[in-house]
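From the methods appendix. Each design record in this collection lists the tokenized structure first, followed by the designed amino acid sequence. Records were kept in a plain field format so they could be parsed without special tools. The example shown here is representative of the layout used throughout.

RECORD:
FOLD TOKENS (419 positions):
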């Protein structure tokens, strides 16, 4: 098959140009290096809690707290990997491990199915769990049967566990309660949980019966400072890039400075460095420059907004959409009351429960914290206070994302009379 001329030249550029990357996976958030700098305290703490598993005793449950990009998931993966390796070297039965990203696997059924699949990979018994279709109680029974066939310790890492409860408080608590009380139903095996949360207020959302068993041990991850971010970046540059591809020290300094502005987010720093490298690669440049970094930052910001909007709960999306509809209709100054009136219409059209004005005001504040809107509190004297609201990102970008939802797109036509 003959390549089209433009594609042929594009591929030639990749073949002939100097390779930028040696191992780009070293810049992925899931990559676990052989050495983890600046997290000795947290590693030792988690290691001391998990250590009893080497003697066949179930470890305590752990809650790891910290902002995004502070190393929680990587540290948990690193310590568990070393624990399993140590068990194998010592001729001790290693604990089984399972990782569940709760933001992606968000229902009771899917969490239990993911655990069944992870156990199945290590203990194949010929049975497969269907993707859907079984009652939740039945899949819990399958999990217990698979696990209890012999003496086992299963360490379950629930990454972004707070998203379970934020999505549905009742169901989230049920999932966690079901896992924590499963130990009382198992005869030969035990389950230990490592919950990883980006929300420091996560415990406030938990049912007391869950909190008493889940939060046995806590490990806090502080944001990285500028010096630590630079050290992490230097380590990953050596692993990920070919020699001289990142020769300008200003590149690492700029990436570190931009990430430090985001409260020490190492994940963002590594993502920015990888994006800058990919931009240099696409352009056929031999080295990553500060210009690539700045261009990469703009690209990531656009992608971050898209991801943030797409993962909003439906009620928050309805509030954001009400601001968007009013702004698209020519309103320069949008006040809380106007926003609530538009929200009521949108909520009815979406068959959502209509929240109170106070709760919508809380959601407006949350959207402000996410950087999707800007709010200013206006005093109206004896008539109280209101908020003046405006979109913090372009109407075009928000509209393009929201219009992907067919229902919202139809509502926009009905409200604004525009296609």
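DESIGN:
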């Amino acid at each position: 098959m003959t390549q089209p001329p433009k594609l042929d030249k594009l591929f030639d550029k990749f073949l002939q140009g100097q390779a930028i990357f040696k191992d780009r996976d070293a810049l992925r958030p899931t990559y676990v290096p052989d050495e983890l700098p600046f997290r000795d305290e947290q590693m030792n703490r988690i290691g001391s809690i998990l250590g009893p598993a080497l003697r066949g005793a179930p470890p305590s449950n752990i809650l790891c707290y910290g902002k995004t990009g502070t190393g929680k998931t990587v540290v948990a993966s690193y310590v568990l990997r070393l624990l399993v390796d140590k068990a194998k070297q010592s001729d001790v039965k290693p604990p089984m491990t399972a990782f569940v990203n709760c933001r992606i696997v968000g229902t009771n059924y899917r969490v239990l199915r993911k655990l069944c699949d992870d156990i199945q990979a290590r203990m194949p018994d010929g049975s497969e769990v269907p993707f859907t279709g079984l009652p939740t109680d039945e899949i819990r029974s399958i999990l217990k049967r698979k696990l209890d066939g012999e003496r086992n310790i299963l360490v379950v890492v629930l990454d972004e566990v707070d998203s379970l409860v934020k999505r549905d408080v009742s169901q989230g608590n049920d999932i966690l309660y079901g896992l924590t009380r499963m130990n009382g139903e198992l005869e030969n095996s035990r389950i230990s949980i490592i919950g990883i949360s980006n929300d420091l207020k996560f415990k406030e959302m938990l049912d007391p019966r869950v909190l008493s068993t889940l939060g046995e041990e806590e490990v806090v991850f502080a944001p990285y400072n500028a010096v630590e971010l630079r050290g992490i970046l230097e380590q990953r540059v050596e692993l990920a890039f070919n020699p001289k591809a990142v020769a300008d020290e200003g590149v690492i300094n700029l990436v570190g400075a931009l990430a430090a502005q985001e409260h020490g987010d190492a994940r963002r720093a590594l993502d920015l460095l990888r994006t800058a490298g990919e931009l240099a690669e696409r352009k056929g440049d031999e080295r990553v420059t500060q210009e690539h970094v700045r261009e990469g930052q703009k690209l990531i910001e656009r992608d971050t907004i898209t991801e943030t909007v797409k993962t909003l709960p439906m009620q928050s999306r309805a509030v954001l959409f009400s601001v968007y509809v009013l702004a698209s209709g020519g309103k320069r100054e949008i006040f809380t009351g106007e926003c609530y009136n538009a929200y009521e219409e949108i909520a009815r059209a979406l068959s959502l429960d209509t929240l109170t004005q106070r709760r919508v005001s809380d959601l407006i504040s949350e959207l402000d914290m996410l950087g999707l809107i800007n709010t200013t509190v206006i005093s109206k004297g004896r008539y109280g206070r209101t908020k003046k609201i405006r979109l913090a990102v372009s109407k075009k970008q928000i509209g393009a994302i929201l219009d992907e939802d067919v229902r919202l797109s139809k509502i926009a036509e009905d409200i604004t009379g525009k296609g």
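APPENDIX NOTE: The chain has three domains: 15-27+225-309, 40-220, 312-416.
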